[in-house]
């Protein structure tokens, strides 16, 4: 007596759309990716670097050097230039992508907030000093650049705050989403 049973199997196929970061690397280690410069945070970093440099240059050129506000403005402009340039290099070479577990966005938000306050103080001191001292016309120009840097750092701080609230991670370059042919079926 042969016992035969008919079995029916039901399978479910599900398609998921997952965005992914496309990095075209040919070797090991960090690769230069200039796509980050086309994003708003990349443009803000370039503006911050340029405004810090121009503010430092104007402070260096114009006015008496014995005023204490000049030393503080030089500190703010030089360290703002250096730290922002370092951050730009880390984003351009995708070094921040390797450290997703670190709160890079929070650290950068705190840095931008502190430098916003520093540039407010530096710009106010330079504006007052340019009126007080004769021959300090470049300090007024440096104050304009300091307030421009203040705006750039404030906007960057706000964008980092929004990214932190949305639980985003720091990424270099632009995000490229997968096409429909690359969907995963399970």
Automatic annotation (TrEMBL):
<feature type="domain" description="MARVEL">
    <location>
        <begin position="36"/>
        <end position="165"/>
    </location>
</feature>
<feature type="transmembrane region" description="Helical">
    <location>
        <begin position="46"/>
        <end position="66"/>
    </location>
</feature>
<dbReference type="GO" id="GO:0016020">
    <property type="term" value="C:membrane"/>
</dbReference>
<protein>
    <submittedName>
        <fullName>MARVEL domain-containing protein</fullName>
    </submittedName>
</protein>
<keyword id="KW-1133">Transmembrane helix</keyword>
<keyword id="KW-0472">Membrane</keyword>
<feature type="transmembrane region" description="Helical">
    <location>
        <begin position="72"/>
        <end position="93"/>
    </location>
</feature>
<dbReference type="InterPro" id="IPR050578">
    <property type="entry name" value="MARVEL-CKLF_proteins"/>
</dbReference>
<feature type="transmembrane region" description="Helical">
    <location>
        <begin position="136"/>
        <end position="155"/>
    </location>
</feature>
<feature type="transmembrane region" description="Helical">
    <location>
        <begin position="105"/>
        <end position="130"/>
    </location>
</feature>
<keyword id="KW-0812">Transmembrane</keyword>
<dbReference type="InterPro" id="IPR008253">
    <property type="entry name" value="Marvel"/>
</dbReference>
<dbReference type="Pfam" id="PF01284">
    <property type="entry name" value="MARVEL"/>
</dbReference>
